[in-house]
Amino acid sequence: MPSGTEAKSISDKDGYVLIADQVTKTFISAKNKVIALDNCSFKIRPGIVTGLIGPDGAGKTTIMRLASGLLMPDSGTIEVLGLDATRDYLQIQASIRYMPQRFGLYEDLTVMENLNLYADLLGIPPEERPARYERLMKMTGLAPFTGRLAGRLSGGMKQKLGLACTLIKPPSLLILDEPTVGVDPVSRRELWDIVYSQVKERKTSVLLSTSYLDEAERCQEVVLIHEGHILGHGKPEEFSKPLSGQCFMLSVPKEQKRRLQAELANDPKVVDSIILGEKIRLVLREPVEPSKVSSLFELANVEVMDVEPRFEDAFMWRLKKRMEEQGEEIHFRTIAHHKVSGSAGEDVIVVKDLVRRFGDFYAVKGISFSVKRGEIFGLLGANGAGKTTTFRMLCGLLPASEGKLMVAGKDLRKARAQARAKIGYMAQKFSLYVDLTVRQNLRFFSSAYGLTGKRQTDRIEWALDTFELKNMENAVSGTLPLGYKQRLALAAALMHEPDILFLDEPTSGVDPLARRQFWAHINSLAEAKVTIMVTTHFMEEAEYCDRVVVMRRGSILASGTPEELKAKYHPPGEDNPTMEDAFITLVEMQENG
Amino acid sequence: MANRDTGKNRMRLSGLIKKEAYQIIRDPSAIGIAFLLPVILLLIFGYGVSLDAEHVPVGLVIEKQGPEVSQFISGFYRSEYFDPKIFPSIQEAERALMHREVVGIVWTRSNFARTLLNTSDAPIGVIVNGVDANQARIIEGYIMGVWINWLHQYARSKGVALQVPVNVKYRIWFNSAVRSRNFLVPGLIAVIMTLIGGMLTSMVVAREWERGTMEALLVTPVRKREIILGKTIPYFVLGMGGMAISVAMAIWVFNVPFRGSFWALSLSSGLFMLTAIGLGLIISVTAESQFVAGQIAIVITFLPAFMLSGFVFDIGSMPGPIQAVTHLVSARYFVSILQTLFLCGDIWPIFIINCLWLAGMALFFFVVIRKKFKKRLQ
Lengths: 593, 378
What we know:
The complex is a heterodimer.
Chain A: H1 3-12, E1 18-29, E2 32-44, E3 49-53, H2 60-67, E4 75-80, E5 83-84, H3 89-95, E6 96-99, H4 111-121, H5 129-140, H6 155-166, E7 173-176, H7 185-202, E8 205-210, E9 221-226, E10 229-234, H8 236-240, E11 247-251, H9 257-265, E12 270-276, E13 279-284, H10 290-296, E14 303-306, H11 311-325, E15 347-358, E16 361-372, E17 376-380, H12 387-394, E18 402-407, E19 410-411, H13 416-420, E20 423-426, H14 438-448, H15 453-466, H16 482-494, E21 500-504, H17 512-527, E22 531-536, E23 547-552, E24 555-560, H18 562-568, H19 579-591
Parallel strand pairs in A: 3-8, 3-9, 6-7, 7-8, 17-22, 17-23, 20-21, 21-22
Antiparallel strand pairs in A: 1-2, 1-4, 4-5, 9-10, 11-13, 11-14, 12-13, 15-16, 15-18, 18-19, 23-24
Chain B: H1 2-26, H2 28-48, E1 56-62, H3 67-78, E2 82-87, H4 90-98, E3 104-108, H5 112-119, E4 124-128, H6 133-157, H7 181-210, H8 213-218, H9 224-253, H10 262-286, H11 290-307, H12 320-326, H13 330-343, H14 348-372
Parallel strand pairs in B: 1-2, 1-3
Antiparallel strand pairs in B: 3-4
Helix pairs in contact in B: 1-9, 2-7, 2-9, 3-6, 7-9, 7-10, 7-11, 7-13, 9-10, 10-11, 10-13, 10-14, 13-14
């Protein structure tokens, strides 16, 4: 009897494929006890896609490892397909498939060799393989690449191959850990299609984790998790529906949007306020008639439209409630930064025909753009689009192969050091010294920028105060929560009061509250006419920018304000397109010539 | 049902072995450690490093020429151990010694011939640079040899037998040419196999943790023993390949005599290979990054195999506590077997005892691995 049907019959008994009952799991890291999961209980229904959604460090991976028998809970039980995950993990492993965050592919094996390995491990008889491979190759579009080493595939293709390997033997429960993170939107959509085709054709149950909140709406059910706590469980619309009538879009005069948004964000009547392109999105605590919103906040020259609530609104709402229950106050702070001299209209960064080669590979193929003073400018694209390479050249970390690069009026090819003194740089993953304390990190970075004596002490105090790091000043940086690390990294980049700030993937994976606080800081810097350049693969983050360029494979596909891009490139019939829709349309246009 | 299960088991294991083989073939560093490194090490130790004193630059101070002196001196020229250099005075010779142009001085005074004729009690002076004590002792012995040789000749030419109370006749067994290469090269085979078994194995398992492939592997129906075997078998084969290359080079390139039997060599190498891989796997269970695994492997497999196995440094002349520690180094048993098999032959008492030690250690290591290797994280 094939083990697949065996497992299914077990799961049918109580109707759930996964039951977590009061699960607690702690880890010891560097003498600190980290609570990964705190008394979590939830049940996963069969035959649907359940999204496990939460920011980095929420406990998603821990849940998945517990469910696949890789970890044991400290207390509580996890039942998978009717079997105890602590005791019967071998049996569970025979009928589930788990794809870890980093695909679990052998990069030095070809696509076909990877498939063969998994077919061997899963005991697929050789005579059945050709038919299964053909189906998988068709599904993933990997057929032309069977002889290619897995390490040479793009991020999206790697994920598809990982998925193909787990689906060689269709499991009754499929566990996917962040399959869409870092993948370009086109591949992301294809991955979702593959997952849903499994659910439809084979009634597979899927548990999928993601830190992208906009993916919640693609799931049939959602378990929302934050800092080891389950914040909610239900259909995605059940999360957002209660907020109907509380969500609005405000059209405001361009020069006021940042100041207005900052005011609204700290208003007690407001759950959430963010900048979306030219507009401000507002979520209120109580339902209000759209016509009364202006008077409620005494706004002039503002056009108010009511909009559908989104999953993220619900997350923000629950997060805020939870923090208030714990007696914590949320107040978005701004940064006091000296007003940068110079007129607002002048070009601070000029890039012309910029090329960067690595051997015979063109990472950047002749791009041109310019950034004005006080602008928030976004470089948008998937991993591998050439964003980070462009960035490193702009910061003077990497020489350009060809082209012109002017930063703060200095030619980077000639006056690199002078240009650098005006630049603050916050690298991907925050590049802090994880063994140093918060204060030591600040001291190091400030002296690296040449700050000494009283000015240095003043700046360190300023940083500790502005970024609310005072109570953590002696904590070792590596053990800080992600939100704190991010603030510390930003503080470190601002120690020398730069005129230009470069942010490389600044908020990927942090929770929405931390992201808002971060953008509150950034917006106040922009108000002080600091020029800000951001890279992100996170389409939504582009909405915070004044202007963006969309990059793919080293070239610029399009540039303009987020509004312009969304209006110009959107799928036919979509009247409320997102940045992601615009990106996909752009890519398809490029591929179809 | 049972049949089907064994079929599946075999399929899983062969899948893992095939995977490992592809990885070895495509990883230049694995090929380097398995095939290039043995050749390089053998060339260095076979040709470069030698514990024999050969072509020793020695200063000869001849204050006054004469037939006796030239006869004595010619002994140094004929010997392949010396590279003599003539100095007219002791002062110049001493200066050369200071500048390390020579490592020893043989000083024949101007009255050498005269005193020899008159009293047959002619002194020569010998100065040896004692910084390298080992070499100094060897050189001292060689000079003595030349001296005694000459004395016999001289006596014979005078028609009298040399009056020496005790006459020493040397017979050097097993390595009659006293070539250090003959025992260094066999010992080196143990070091090479330790590298392949211990370092390579520990690092490739750590690599799977680092790249997250181990996590994916653990959540398949694969069994613990299959993962262990899937690592052991390919590296066993690779290590035996490295051994074959080394033995072939030892015999045909360096002309080291091989007096034992090949099956005894294969059996003991196999056992030793298992201890090396076993230790490598234990390291990999503890260390989860390639870098750490590599560091630990160097400290607990490679360095002991090099220094405590008796491959270069004689265990018998180590201080007691260190001698005790050498018993924990599996290479020690294998070096002993190798040196016996190459230079002496199948000496069963030595062979069996050392093989038992190796077998015991291999068994112990694999029991530990089975205990420590968990199909779980953390």
